[in-house]
Automatic annotation (TrEMBL):
It comes from the Bacteria. The lineage of its organism: Bacteria, Bacillati, Actinomycetota, Actinomycetes, Pseudonocardiales. SUPFAM superfamilies: P-loop containing nucleoside triphosphate hydrolases. Transmembrane segments: none annotated. The keyword Transport applies. The keyword Phosphoprotein does not apply. It comes from Lentzea alba. This is ABC transporter ATP-binding protein.
Amino acid sequence: MSTVGMSVTLGTTTSAVAIDDVSVRFQSKRTEVTAIGQVSLDVAPGEFVSIVGPSGCGKSTLLKLVSGLLKPSSGSVTLLGEEVRGPRHDIGFVFQRAALLEWRSARKNILLQAEMRGMNAAEAGKRADELIEMTGLAGFENALPHELSGGMQQRVALCRALLHQPRVLLMDEPFGALDALTREQMNVELHRVWRETGTTVLLVTHSIAESVYLANRVIVLTQRPAVVKEVIEVDLPAERDYSATMARAEFAAATAHIRDLLGAVTGHD
Ligand SMILES: Nc1ncnc2c1ncn2[C@@H]1O[C@H](COP(=O)(O)OP(=O)(O)OP(=O)(O)O)[C@@H](O)[C@H]1O
Ligand SMILES: [Mg+2]
């Protein structure tokens, strides 16, 4: 793609993430699966991109490529101007399950990130307290994971992923295990955190409403092997009150369009 070529020749990071003609094949003795057909995607610094697609189409695989946990069979992935060749530690990752250490308090779970990276303890502590405040966890710093609700546990996971101030945050179905109301609250909070931190976010989600509410762009993938079916530009005001956003005509149009696209690729509906 010409924009990718331009970022390389200029030697500057015009894309936070550049996925260039990537394909992924998994081969074992028993099976051979092409998870990603051929995908290209540029994500601008500070952008929020949602990725939706049928179950098993290759969404988690795509995030693993960006984090360097997996190598593409062909094509390349560039993160912050540098080709991804192995696990990248300058990102944040939030999964469907919070995966907290049961014997550590909320704050100590967040600080795990600092310990693993050998960050300055005083600075990490200050940053942890800011994030605790920002995500509404104040008062629960010393609670153990089993004393927290599912939503609060995900907030702890989000704080942990943001502690080292990553410029790129990858999220794989982070709110999939939450009830609908908690999920909406988390969406509002994530939107606010994103605006306050300026982090580039790639979010994989099964919720069409969530994908539109949060993103600047929604990438709709096809059935496996995944290719980009369509890219939807989300035209919503930056200030996103939840109910007011749901009521907007642009929101209804975008979600209906994505539902049609997913219905077409899955053959349901
Ligand atoms: N390590 C692996 N070895 C072999 N096959 C794999 C591996 N990881 C993923 N796959 C296959 O690749 C395809 C895509 O998997 P992936 O987990 O990326 O899908 P997904 O879109 O995240 O699905 P879901 O929405 O259910 O989470 C699946 O068919 C899966 O079986
Ligand atoms: Mg997945």
